Amino acid sequence: MAIQGIDFANLSLKDALDLAILVEDEAQERYEEFATQMDQHQTPHAAQFFRYMVKNEAKHGQELQARRVQRFGDAPRSVTRAMIFDIEAPDYDAARAFMSPRKAMEAALASEVKAHAFFVSALPALKDSEVRALFEELRDEEVEHQEMVQLELAKLPPDSGLSDEDFVDEPAAQ
Amino acid sequence: MSATCDYQAKDYKSDLKPIWCPGCGDFSVVQGIYRALAAIGRPPHEIAFVSGIGCSSRIPGYTTAYGFNSVHGRSLPIAQGIKLANPDLLVLAAGGDGDGFSIGGGHIAHLIRRNMDITYIVMDNQIYGLTKGQLSPTSQKGRVTCTSRYGSMEEPVNPLLYVLAYGAGFVAQASPTDLVGMAATIEEAIRYPGFAFVNVQSPCVTYGEEAQQIKGLKAISESLQSLGHNPADRLAAMDLAQQYGQKMHLGVFYRNPEPPPTYGDLVKERQTLLSKDALPKERILDLFIKK
Ligand SMILES: Cc1ncc(C[n+]2csc(CCOP(=O)(O)OP(=O)(O)O)c2C)c(N)n1
Ligand code: SF4
Ligand SMILES: [Mg+2]
What architecture is the B9-260 domain classified under in CATH? Predict the structure, then answer.
Protein backbone atom coordinates (compact mmCIF):
# COMPACT_ATOMS: atom_id res chain seq x y z
CA MET A 1 0.00 0.00 0.00
CA ALA A 2 1.51 3.33 -0.99
CA ILE A 3 0.41 6.87 -1.56
CA GLN A 4 2.46 9.60 -3.15
CA GLY A 5 2.06 13.35 -3.47
CA ILE A 6 -1.28 13.66 -1.65
CA ASP A 7 -1.56 16.35 0.99
CA PHE A 8 -4.29 14.98 3.24
CA ALA A 9 -4.42 18.13 5.38
CA ASN A 10 -5.52 20.16 2.39
CA LEU A 11 -7.48 17.52 0.53
CA SER A 12 -10.65 18.99 -1.03
CA LEU A 13 -13.89 17.05 -1.25
CA LYS A 14 -13.53 16.81 -5.03
CA ASP A 15 -10.02 15.35 -4.73
CA ALA A 16 -11.15 13.02 -1.95
CA LEU A 17 -13.98 11.68 -4.11
CA ASP A 18 -11.63 11.29 -7.07
CA LEU A 19 -9.13 9.50 -4.87
CA ALA A 20 -11.84 7.12 -3.64
CA ILE A 21 -12.90 6.45 -7.25
CA LEU A 22 -9.29 5.70 -8.25
CA VAL A 23 -8.96 3.32 -5.31
CA GLU A 24 -12.05 1.42 -6.54
CA ASP A 25 -10.78 1.50 -10.16
CA GLU A 26 -7.45 0.04 -9.10
CA ALA A 27 -9.14 -2.73 -7.10
CA GLN A 28 -11.51 -3.51 -9.98
CA GLU A 29 -8.63 -3.76 -12.46
CA ARG A 30 -6.58 -5.95 -10.15
CA TYR A 31 -9.49 -8.37 -9.62
CA GLU A 32 -9.98 -8.44 -13.38
CA GLU A 33 -6.29 -9.27 -13.81
CA PHE A 34 -6.53 -11.98 -11.16
CA ALA A 35 -9.59 -13.49 -12.84
CA THR A 36 -7.71 -13.60 -16.16
CA GLN A 37 -4.69 -15.17 -14.45
CA MET A 38 -6.98 -17.84 -12.98
CA ASP A 39 -8.49 -18.49 -16.44
CA GLN A 40 -4.97 -18.91 -17.85
CA HIS A 41 -4.17 -21.42 -15.13
CA GLN A 42 -7.39 -23.45 -15.20
CA THR A 43 -8.59 -22.23 -11.81
CA PRO A 44 -12.25 -21.46 -12.63
CA HIS A 45 -13.72 -21.21 -9.15
CA ALA A 46 -11.24 -18.61 -7.98
CA ALA A 47 -11.76 -16.80 -11.32
CA GLN A 48 -15.49 -16.75 -10.67
CA PHE A 49 -15.01 -15.25 -7.22
CA PHE A 50 -12.59 -12.60 -8.53
CA ARG A 51 -15.19 -11.64 -11.17
CA TYR A 52 -17.75 -11.25 -8.40
CA MET A 53 -15.31 -8.83 -6.74
CA VAL A 54 -14.87 -6.98 -10.07
CA LYS A 55 -18.63 -6.33 -10.09
CA ASN A 56 -18.62 -5.16 -6.48
CA GLU A 57 -15.75 -2.76 -6.95
CA ALA A 58 -17.30 -1.45 -10.18
CA LYS A 59 -20.58 -0.80 -8.36
CA HIS A 60 -18.84 1.12 -5.56
CA GLY A 61 -16.85 3.07 -8.11
CA GLN A 62 -20.01 4.02 -10.05
CA GLU A 63 -21.79 5.16 -6.89
CA LEU A 64 -18.87 7.40 -6.00
CA GLN A 65 -18.66 8.66 -9.58
CA ALA A 66 -22.34 9.63 -9.53
CA ARG A 67 -21.81 11.62 -6.33
CA ARG A 68 -18.76 13.30 -7.82
CA VAL A 69 -20.63 14.34 -10.95
CA GLN A 70 -23.63 15.56 -8.98
CA ARG A 71 -21.46 17.76 -6.80
CA PHE A 72 -18.62 18.81 -9.09
CA GLY A 73 -19.76 18.03 -12.63
CA ASP A 74 -16.86 17.34 -14.98
CA ALA A 75 -14.37 19.65 -13.26
CA PRO A 76 -10.89 18.31 -14.09
CA ARG A 77 -9.24 15.76 -11.83
CA SER A 78 -6.06 16.67 -10.03
CA VAL A 79 -5.33 13.32 -8.42
CA THR A 80 -3.99 10.53 -10.62
CA ARG A 81 -3.52 6.78 -10.53
CA ALA A 82 0.24 7.25 -10.29
CA MET A 83 -0.34 8.62 -6.78
CA ILE A 84 -1.76 5.40 -5.38
CA PHE A 85 -0.67 1.80 -5.24
CA ASP A 86 -2.42 -1.22 -3.77
CA ILE A 87 -4.84 0.62 -1.49
CA GLU A 88 -7.83 -1.71 -1.89
CA ALA A 89 -6.41 -3.84 -4.69
CA PRO A 90 -5.08 -7.18 -3.47
CA ASP A 91 -1.27 -7.33 -3.59
CA TYR A 92 0.10 -8.93 -6.77
CA ASP A 93 1.66 -11.72 -4.77
CA ALA A 94 -1.72 -12.63 -3.24
CA ALA A 95 -2.66 -14.66 -6.33
CA ARG A 96 -1.54 -18.24 -6.86
CA ALA A 97 -2.11 -20.76 -9.61
CA PHE A 98 -4.72 -23.31 -8.58
CA MET A 99 -5.79 -21.28 -5.55
CA SER A 100 -8.95 -22.53 -3.93
CA PRO A 101 -12.03 -20.28 -3.66
CA ARG A 102 -11.22 -20.05 0.06
CA LYS A 103 -7.74 -18.71 -0.66
CA ALA A 104 -9.19 -16.28 -3.21
CA MET A 105 -11.69 -15.00 -0.65
CA GLU A 106 -9.00 -14.72 1.98
CA ALA A 107 -6.98 -12.58 -0.41
CA ALA A 108 -10.01 -10.32 -0.95
CA LEU A 109 -10.63 -10.14 2.79
CA ALA A 110 -7.03 -9.09 3.42
CA SER A 111 -7.50 -6.30 0.84
CA GLU A 112 -10.63 -5.01 2.55
CA VAL A 113 -8.74 -4.99 5.85
CA LYS A 114 -5.91 -3.11 4.14
CA ALA A 115 -8.32 -0.53 2.67
CA HIS A 116 -9.92 -0.04 6.08
CA ALA A 117 -6.47 0.58 7.59
CA PHE A 118 -5.79 3.15 4.86
CA PHE A 119 -8.88 5.23 5.65
CA VAL A 120 -8.24 4.93 9.41
CA SER A 121 -4.64 6.07 9.02
CA ALA A 122 -5.58 9.04 6.80
CA LEU A 123 -8.31 10.37 9.12
CA PRO A 124 -6.17 12.21 11.71
CA ALA A 125 -4.55 14.37 9.01
CA LEU A 126 -7.85 15.50 7.42
CA LYS A 127 -8.97 19.05 8.19
CA ASP A 128 -12.03 19.52 5.99
CA SER A 129 -15.17 18.30 7.77
CA GLU A 130 -16.85 17.01 4.58
CA VAL A 131 -13.73 15.09 3.57
CA ARG A 132 -13.53 13.67 7.06
CA ALA A 133 -17.17 12.54 6.88
CA LEU A 134 -16.50 10.91 3.49
CA PHE A 135 -13.46 9.04 4.78
CA GLU A 136 -15.40 7.87 7.86
CA GLU A 137 -18.13 6.60 5.57
CA LEU A 138 -15.58 4.79 3.35
CA ARG A 139 -13.87 3.34 6.40
CA ASP A 140 -17.20 1.93 7.64
CA GLU A 141 -18.01 0.58 4.19
CA GLU A 142 -14.79 -1.40 4.26
CA VAL A 143 -16.07 -3.15 7.39
CA GLU A 144 -19.29 -3.98 5.51
CA HIS A 145 -17.23 -5.37 2.61
CA GLN A 146 -15.26 -7.52 5.02
CA GLU A 147 -18.54 -8.89 6.37
CA MET A 148 -19.74 -9.57 2.84
CA VAL A 149 -16.61 -11.62 2.04
CA GLN A 150 -16.87 -13.39 5.38
CA LEU A 151 -20.43 -14.40 4.49
CA GLU A 152 -19.17 -15.91 1.22
CA LEU A 153 -16.42 -17.70 3.12
CA ALA A 154 -18.94 -19.18 5.54
CA LYS A 155 -20.85 -20.75 2.64
CA LEU A 156 -17.82 -22.77 1.52
CA PRO A 157 -17.25 -26.44 2.21
CA PRO A 158 -13.89 -27.18 3.90
CA ASP A 159 -10.79 -26.98 1.66
CA SER A 160 -9.35 -30.15 0.15
CA GLY A 161 -6.13 -29.69 2.11
CA LEU A 162 -4.07 -29.43 -1.10
CA SER A 163 -1.58 -26.59 -1.33
CA ASP A 164 0.17 -24.86 -4.26
CA GLU A 165 3.18 -27.08 -3.62
CA ASP A 166 1.15 -30.13 -4.63
CA PHE A 167 0.95 -28.75 -8.15
CA VAL A 168 4.62 -27.89 -8.75
CA ASP A 169 5.95 -29.90 -11.68
CA GLU A 170 9.20 -31.77 -11.64
CA PRO A 171 11.98 -29.97 -13.54
CA ALA A 172 12.13 -30.58 -17.27
CA ALA A 173 14.67 -29.53 -19.87
CA GLN A 174 13.68 -26.75 -22.26
CA MET B 1 13.26 12.77 -31.30
CA SER B 2 9.51 13.25 -31.29
CA ALA B 3 7.59 15.49 -28.94
CA THR B 4 6.30 13.79 -25.83
CA CYS B 5 2.56 13.40 -25.39
CA ASP B 6 0.11 12.79 -22.61
CA TYR B 7 0.17 9.01 -22.30
CA GLN B 8 -1.29 6.91 -19.53
CA ALA B 9 0.06 3.68 -18.11
CA LYS B 10 -2.70 1.69 -19.83
CA ASP B 11 -1.54 2.92 -23.25
CA TYR B 12 1.57 0.75 -22.88
CA LYS B 13 -0.34 -2.39 -21.93
CA SER B 14 -0.85 -4.88 -24.76
CA ASP B 15 -3.78 -7.25 -25.23
CA LEU B 16 -1.58 -10.28 -24.70
CA LYS B 17 -2.45 -12.01 -21.41
CA PRO B 18 0.61 -12.76 -19.28
CA ILE B 19 1.18 -16.45 -18.66
CA TRP B 20 3.40 -15.87 -15.63
CA CYS B 21 2.42 -17.82 -12.56
CA PRO B 22 -0.12 -15.81 -10.59
CA GLY B 23 1.79 -14.00 -7.84
CA CYS B 24 5.02 -13.71 -9.87
CA GLY B 25 6.95 -10.51 -9.13
CA ASP B 26 7.20 -9.80 -12.85
CA PHE B 27 3.54 -8.67 -12.86
CA SER B 28 4.56 -5.70 -10.74
CA VAL B 29 7.64 -5.03 -12.85
CA VAL B 30 5.58 -4.64 -16.01
CA GLN B 31 3.27 -2.26 -14.13
CA GLY B 32 6.32 -0.25 -13.03
CA ILE B 33 7.44 -0.08 -16.66
CA TYR B 34 3.98 1.08 -17.84
CA ARG B 35 4.03 3.86 -15.27
CA ALA B 36 7.59 4.90 -16.06
CA LEU B 37 6.85 5.01 -19.80
CA ALA B 38 3.70 7.06 -19.19
CA ALA B 39 5.76 9.55 -17.19
CA ILE B 40 8.29 9.78 -20.03
CA GLY B 41 5.49 10.13 -22.57
CA ARG B 42 7.12 8.70 -25.72
CA PRO B 43 4.57 7.04 -28.01
CA PRO B 44 4.76 3.22 -27.96
CA HIS B 45 5.90 3.03 -31.60
CA GLU B 46 9.04 4.97 -30.70
CA ILE B 47 10.08 2.40 -28.13
CA ALA B 48 11.97 -0.82 -28.85
CA PHE B 49 11.91 -3.39 -26.07
CA VAL B 50 14.32 -6.32 -26.39
CA SER B 51 14.63 -9.37 -24.17
CA GLY B 52 16.36 -12.74 -24.09
CA ILE B 53 14.69 -15.97 -23.01
CA GLY B 54 13.18 -16.71 -19.61
CA CYS B 55 9.92 -16.05 -17.78
CA SER B 56 10.97 -12.43 -17.30
CA SER B 57 11.96 -12.14 -20.96
CA ARG B 58 8.31 -12.41 -21.94
CA ILE B 59 7.87 -8.84 -20.76
CA PRO B 60 8.11 -6.97 -24.10
CA GLY B 61 5.06 -8.85 -25.36
CA TYR B 62 2.96 -7.40 -22.56
CA THR B 63 3.70 -3.87 -23.70
CA THR B 64 2.62 -1.97 -26.79
CA ALA B 65 6.23 -1.08 -27.62
CA TYR B 66 7.96 -2.84 -30.53
CA GLY B 67 9.15 -6.03 -28.88
CA PHE B 68 11.78 -8.64 -29.63
CA ASN B 69 11.79 -11.76 -27.42
CA SER B 70 15.13 -12.86 -28.80
CA VAL B 71 17.66 -15.57 -27.89
CA HIS B 72 18.79 -16.60 -24.41
CA GLY B 73 21.43 -14.13 -23.21
CA ARG B 74 21.46 -12.04 -26.36
CA SER B 75 19.17 -9.13 -25.58
CA LEU B 76 22.05 -6.66 -25.26
CA PRO B 77 23.78 -7.18 -28.64
CA ILE B 78 20.38 -6.92 -30.35
CA ALA B 79 19.42 -3.83 -28.35
CA GLN B 80 22.74 -2.22 -29.31
CA GLY B 81 22.18 -2.99 -32.99
CA ILE B 82 18.73 -1.43 -32.84
CA LYS B 83 19.99 1.68 -31.08
CA LEU B 84 22.81 2.12 -33.61
CA ALA B 85 20.50 1.66 -36.58
CA ASN B 86 17.85 4.00 -35.23
CA PRO B 87 19.28 6.26 -32.51
CA ASP B 88 15.99 8.09 -32.04
CA LEU B 89 14.29 5.04 -30.57
CA LEU B 90 13.99 4.69 -26.83
CA VAL B 91 15.62 1.29 -26.33
CA LEU B 92 14.88 -0.92 -23.36
CA ALA B 93 16.39 -4.31 -22.69
CA ALA B 94 15.18 -6.75 -20.06
CA GLY B 95 15.55 -10.30 -18.88
CA GLY B 96 16.37 -12.57 -16.01
CA ASP B 97 19.41 -13.02 -13.79
CA GLY B 98 20.34 -16.14 -15.77
CA ASP B 99 19.89 -14.40 -19.09
CA GLY B 100 21.91 -11.36 -18.02
CA PHE B 101 24.62 -12.76 -15.76
CA SER B 102 25.11 -16.34 -16.94
CA ILE B 103 24.87 -16.90 -20.65
CA GLY B 104 24.70 -13.18 -21.46
CA GLY B 105 27.16 -12.01 -18.81
CA GLY B 106 29.90 -11.17 -21.28
CA HIS B 107 27.84 -8.58 -23.11
CA ILE B 108 27.28 -6.18 -20.23
CA ALA B 109 30.91 -5.10 -19.97
CA HIS B 110 31.00 -4.08 -23.62
CA LEU B 111 27.72 -2.23 -23.49
CA ILE B 112 28.98 -0.33 -20.46
CA ARG B 113 32.30 0.63 -22.01
CA ARG B 114 30.48 1.82 -25.13
CA ASN B 115 28.00 3.73 -22.97
CA MET B 116 25.11 3.25 -25.32
CA ASP B 117 21.90 4.99 -24.31
CA ILE B 118 20.01 1.82 -23.36
CA THR B 119 18.16 0.98 -20.15
CA TYR B 120 18.63 -2.58 -18.98
CA ILE B 121 16.22 -4.04 -16.45
CA VAL B 122 17.12 -7.37 -14.88
CA MET B 123 14.40 -9.25 -13.04
CA ASP B 124 16.57 -10.94 -10.49
CA ASN B 125 14.78 -13.87 -8.85
CA GLN B 126 17.95 -15.81 -8.02
CA ILE B 127 16.72 -18.81 -10.03
CA TYR B 128 16.12 -20.11 -13.53
CA GLY B 129 12.35 -19.78 -13.47
CA LEU B 130 11.37 -20.81 -16.98
CA THR B 131 13.29 -24.09 -16.90
CA LYS B 132 11.77 -24.90 -13.51
CA GLY B 133 14.07 -23.97 -10.74
CA GLN B 134 17.77 -24.57 -11.41
CA LEU B 135 20.62 -22.61 -9.83
CA SER B 136 21.19 -19.20 -11.36
CA PRO B 137 24.31 -17.04 -11.12
CA THR B 138 22.70 -14.97 -8.34
CA SER B 139 21.51 -17.95 -6.26
CA GLN B 140 22.89 -17.86 -2.74
CA LYS B 141 25.67 -20.26 -1.74
CA GLY B 142 24.16 -23.35 -0.14
CA ARG B 143 20.95 -23.06 -2.17
CA VAL B 144 19.31 -26.43 -2.74
CA THR B 145 17.71 -26.85 -6.16
CA CYS B 146 17.19 -29.68 -8.61
CA THR B 147 20.71 -29.02 -9.97
CA SER B 148 22.30 -28.57 -6.55
CA ARG B 149 20.85 -31.36 -4.44
CA TYR B 150 23.38 -30.86 -1.64
CA GLY B 151 23.48 -27.09 -1.88
CA SER B 152 25.29 -24.74 -4.22
CA MET B 153 29.04 -24.53 -3.67
CA GLU B 154 29.42 -21.28 -5.63
CA GLU B 155 29.41 -17.68 -4.50
CA PRO B 156 26.68 -15.68 -6.23
CA VAL B 157 27.43 -12.98 -8.76
CA ASN B 158 26.71 -9.52 -7.35
CA PRO B 159 24.97 -7.76 -10.26
CA LEU B 160 25.21 -4.31 -8.69
CA LEU B 161 28.90 -4.49 -7.96
CA TYR B 162 29.49 -6.06 -11.37
CA VAL B 163 28.06 -3.15 -13.33
CA LEU B 164 29.49 -0.54 -10.97
CA ALA B 165 32.95 -2.02 -11.36
CA TYR B 166 32.70 -1.84 -15.14
CA GLY B 167 31.82 1.84 -14.86
CA ALA B 168 28.10 2.01 -15.56
CA GLY B 169 26.84 5.59 -15.32
CA PHE B 170 23.50 4.73 -13.72
CA VAL B 171 22.93 1.84 -11.34
CA ALA B 172 19.80 1.31 -9.28
CA GLN B 173 17.75 -1.35 -7.55
CA ALA B 174 14.00 -1.70 -7.25
CA SER B 175 11.48 -4.23 -6.07
CA PRO B 176 7.73 -4.97 -6.19
CA THR B 177 7.72 -4.21 -2.45
CA ASP B 178 7.56 -0.56 -3.59
CA LEU B 179 5.91 -0.11 -6.97
CA VAL B 180 5.78 3.68 -6.78
CA GLY B 181 9.53 3.71 -6.11
CA MET B 182 10.14 1.14 -8.85
CA ALA B 183 8.32 3.25 -11.44
CA ALA B 184 10.25 6.35 -10.38
CA THR B 185 13.57 4.47 -10.53
CA ILE B 186 12.90 3.04 -13.98
CA GLU B 187 11.82 6.47 -15.20
CA GLU B 188 15.05 7.98 -13.88
CA ALA B 189 17.06 5.21 -15.53
CA ILE B 190 15.40 5.88 -18.89
CA ARG B 191 16.03 9.61 -18.57
CA TYR B 192 19.73 9.06 -17.82
CA PRO B 193 21.68 9.85 -21.02
CA GLY B 194 23.73 6.68 -21.35
CA PHE B 195 23.69 3.08 -20.20
CA ALA B 196 21.43 2.60 -17.18
CA PHE B 197 21.03 -0.57 -15.18
CA VAL B 198 18.15 -1.45 -12.85
CA ASN B 199 18.27 -4.65 -10.85
CA VAL B 200 14.75 -5.56 -9.81
CA GLN B 201 14.40 -8.12 -7.05
CA SER B 202 11.34 -9.84 -8.46
CA PRO B 203 10.26 -12.93 -6.54
CA CYS B 204 9.60 -16.25 -8.25
CA VAL B 205 6.67 -17.56 -6.25
CA THR B 206 6.95 -21.04 -7.72
CA TYR B 207 10.63 -21.90 -7.41
CA GLY B 208 12.02 -19.01 -5.34
CA GLU B 209 13.09 -19.26 -1.74
CA GLU B 210 10.87 -18.15 1.11
CA ALA B 211 13.36 -15.43 2.10
CA GLN B 212 13.14 -13.96 -1.40
CA GLN B 213 9.37 -13.57 -1.41
CA ILE B 214 7.76 -10.17 -0.81
CA LYS B 215 7.60 -10.61 2.97
CA GLY B 216 11.24 -11.65 3.19
CA LEU B 217 12.33 -8.84 0.87
CA LYS B 218 10.39 -6.26 2.85
CA ALA B 219 12.22 -7.37 5.98
CA ILE B 220 15.64 -6.60 4.45
CA SER B 221 14.68 -3.57 2.38
CA GLU B 222 16.14 -0.14 3.03
CA SER B 223 15.77 2.99 0.93
CA LEU B 224 19.09 4.49 -0.15
CA GLN B 225 17.60 7.95 0.15
CA SER B 226 16.64 7.39 3.78
CA LEU B 227 20.23 6.27 4.46
CA GLY B 228 21.38 9.67 3.18
CA HIS B 229 23.36 8.01 0.38
CA ASN B 230 24.80 10.43 -2.17
CA PRO B 231 24.21 8.86 -5.62
CA ALA B 232 27.12 10.87 -7.08
CA ASP B 233 29.56 8.95 -4.87
CA ARG B 234 30.61 5.83 -6.78
CA LEU B 235 32.79 4.38 -4.05
CA ALA B 236 30.01 4.75 -1.47
CA ALA B 237 27.70 3.03 -3.97
CA MET B 238 30.17 0.14 -4.31
CA ASP B 239 30.40 -0.12 -0.55
CA LEU B 240 26.62 -0.39 -0.21
CA ALA B 241 26.36 -2.76 -3.19
CA GLN B 242 28.52 -5.25 -1.31
CA GLN B 243 25.56 -5.94 0.92
CA TYR B 244 23.64 -7.48 -1.99
CA GLY B 245 22.01 -10.66 -0.70
CA GLN B 246 21.89 -9.49 2.91
CA LYS B 247 20.18 -6.14 2.49
CA MET B 248 17.91 -4.96 -0.29
CA HIS B 249 18.77 -1.32 -0.90
CA LEU B 250 16.20 0.44 -3.03
CA GLY B 251 16.78 3.49 -5.21
CA VAL B 252 19.75 4.91 -7.05
CA PHE B 253 23.19 3.60 -6.09
CA TYR B 254 25.06 5.67 -8.63
CA ARG B 255 24.25 8.36 -11.14
CA ASN B 256 27.27 9.88 -12.88
CA PRO B 257 26.92 13.62 -12.19
CA GLU B 258 28.77 14.37 -15.43
CA PRO B 259 27.52 11.83 -17.95
CA PRO B 260 30.15 11.23 -20.65
CA PRO B 261 29.12 11.27 -24.33
CA THR B 262 27.20 8.21 -25.42
CA TYR B 263 28.38 5.92 -28.19
CA GLY B 264 25.63 7.42 -30.32
CA ASP B 265 27.02 10.94 -29.76
CA LEU B 266 30.50 9.76 -30.76
CA VAL B 267 29.20 8.01 -33.86
CA LYS B 268 27.37 11.17 -34.90
CA GLU B 269 30.49 13.24 -34.31
CA ARG B 270 32.60 10.82 -36.36
CA GLN B 271 30.03 10.80 -39.15
CA THR B 272 30.01 14.59 -39.30
CA LEU B 273 33.79 14.68 -39.37
CA LEU B 274 34.15 12.06 -42.07
CA SER B 275 31.31 13.30 -44.21
CA LYS B 276 32.95 16.71 -44.69
CA ASP B 277 35.11 15.47 -47.59
CA ALA B 278 32.86 12.61 -48.54
CA LEU B 279 31.60 12.13 -52.05
CA PRO B 280 27.91 12.71 -52.68
CA LYS B 281 25.91 9.49 -52.58
CA GLU B 282 25.40 9.32 -56.34
CA ARG B 283 29.21 9.34 -56.85
CA ILE B 284 29.98 6.67 -54.30
CA LEU B 285 31.12 4.19 -56.98
CA ASP B 286 33.94 6.56 -57.89
CA LEU B 287 35.71 5.28 -54.82
CA PHE B 288 36.22 1.97 -56.57
CA ILE B 289 37.34 3.35 -59.89
CA LYS B 290 41.07 3.61 -60.32
CA LYS B 291 42.07 7.05 -61.39
C1 LIG C 1 21.07 -21.03 -25.72
C2 LIG C 1 20.12 -21.50 -24.69
N3 LIG C 1 20.59 -22.11 -23.58
C4 LIG C 1 19.75 -22.51 -22.63
C5 LIG C 1 18.40 -22.31 -22.75
C6 LIG C 1 17.46 -22.80 -21.67
N7 LIG C 1 16.97 -21.72 -20.85
C8 LIG C 1 15.84 -21.08 -21.16
S9 LIG C 1 15.45 -19.89 -20.05
C10 LIG C 1 16.82 -20.26 -19.13
C11 LIG C 1 17.14 -19.54 -17.85
C12 LIG C 1 16.04 -18.69 -17.33
O13 LIG C 1 16.44 -18.00 -16.16
P14 LIG C 1 16.46 -16.44 -16.09
O15 LIG C 1 17.19 -15.85 -17.21
O16 LIG C 1 16.93 -16.07 -14.73
O17 LIG C 1 14.92 -16.02 -16.30
P18 LIG C 1 13.65 -16.33 -15.40
O19 LIG C 1 12.94 -17.44 -16.07
O20 LIG C 1 14.10 -16.68 -14.03
O21 LIG C 1 12.87 -15.05 -15.43
C22 LIG C 1 17.55 -21.29 -19.71
C23 LIG C 1 18.80 -21.85 -19.13
C24 LIG C 1 17.94 -21.68 -23.92
N25 LIG C 1 16.64 -21.42 -24.11
N26 LIG C 1 18.80 -21.31 -24.86
S1 SF4 D 1 8.26 -19.83 -12.67
FE2 SF4 D 1 8.76 -18.15 -11.27
S3 SF4 D 1 9.63 -16.54 -12.56
FE4 SF4 D 1 8.52 -17.97 -13.89
S5 SF4 D 1 6.44 -17.08 -14.08
FE6 SF4 D 1 6.41 -18.58 -12.42
S7 SF4 D 1 6.78 -17.36 -10.59
FE8 SF4 D 1 7.45 -16.11 -12.32
MG1 LIG E 1 15.81 -15.85 -13.01
Answer: 3-Layer(aba) Sandwich (3.40)
